[in-house]
Amino acid sequence: MVDLIEMGVVTGRKKTLHPMKNVFTIALGTKRTYEFIDENLSMESYPVSYTNDPAVIPQNDNMVSINSVLEVDLLGQCNAESLAGSQFSGTGGQLDFVRGAFNSQGGKSILAFYSTARNGEASRVVPRFEIGTVVTTPRMDTHYVVTEYGVVNLKGKSTRERALDIISLAHPKFRDDLLREAENMYLI
Question: What is the pTM of this model?
């Protein structure tokens, strides 16, 4: 972020809350990062209870949150925390920002992931999560979902539309199997 701020790419000039300020909770980086933050009036640190508050986040118009996920099921549930039943990561405030950005005037939430894992041998679009998989973002909170195969907006869609849209994000070699599973699950 330091490079982007210094180049004038990140300015905060369009923010409706804390305009012209760079708000953060945790700063990790190099000596240069800490020197940049020190005595810099454009930098403001707040507790996570404030920065990740879903009621504070939408106070910035046109807020866009971008988070990564590990897998998405055909209902639109998103897992960003577990792999094969084991904890891989924490929530990182994902759901707070998903909800906060969606509730922002003109805002949107984007959840992005690669369509495959294990060198293309496993689909990250799955019919249903395995037992023990953590749901980081519930299906009704999922807004935009993105892979290298496109982007879909799931808000307001029927279960059938959601399943078909999600399948369109999968790697082509997995789509027929996903369609069969969606039929077996009575989604389509």
Answer: 0.91
